[in-house]
User: Fold this.
Amino acid sequence: SAVISQKPSRDICQRGTSLTIQCQVDSQVTMMFWYRQQPGQSLTLIATANQGSEATYESGFVIDKFPISRPNLTFSTLTVSNMSPEDSSIYLCSVDRQPSGYTFGSGTRLTVV
Amino acid sequence: GQQVMQIPQYQHVQEGEDFTTYCNSSTTLSNIQWYKQRPGGHPVFLIQLVKSGEVKKQKRLTFQFGEAKKNSSLHITATQTTDVGTYFCAGRNAGNMLTFGGGTRLMVKP
Assistant:
């Protein structure tokens, strides 16, 4: 199965600042997915990142708040912009390895103070 | 849109007891996947079920997919402390969209 390296693993940030999360996959993939998992909750899809085109955002998530880059088939970044305490969460990237399911990065635990 | 409901939200069991979590989709699924997330960890894929009525086993874990392909269950026999974590189902619809259930958090008392 795919190996995904995600960083940073955690960060504490001041409100109003931005944080960029990086994910590196050990093989080429067409789509990469970015999820948010609030404490004790399920996974909510933020957006799907395709190489060479703009990311597709789910309802409730906008590009200005969560800009995504996908410069090649093995790498993607998610930026959480102009952060507020409500953005405190775990952010996860993933790839689809059908029929072996989704492989997730180890997650970024973000605390906004 | 597609909704995937999972019950119970939490389950405390004594070590050695059995555990079951149930998943129900508002729409017919093309397949269903199950994941386990250990405390402080990330979700890890366990299995995928595709066929109507399919049953798969992994050691003490038994996974079922309903005949109508709208519901699924995960049963753990004789739980161990290593089973602690949150179990998520995730249903894939015909549009290839994967929707995660709310998860069942399993706690095992030694």
Remarks:
- Chain A has a mean pLDDT of 95.
- The first strand of chain A starts at residue 4 and ends at 7.
- The interface with chain B takes residues 1, 40-43, 92, 96-97, 99-107 of chain A (CB under 8 Å).
- The two ends of chain A are 37 Å apart (CA to CA).
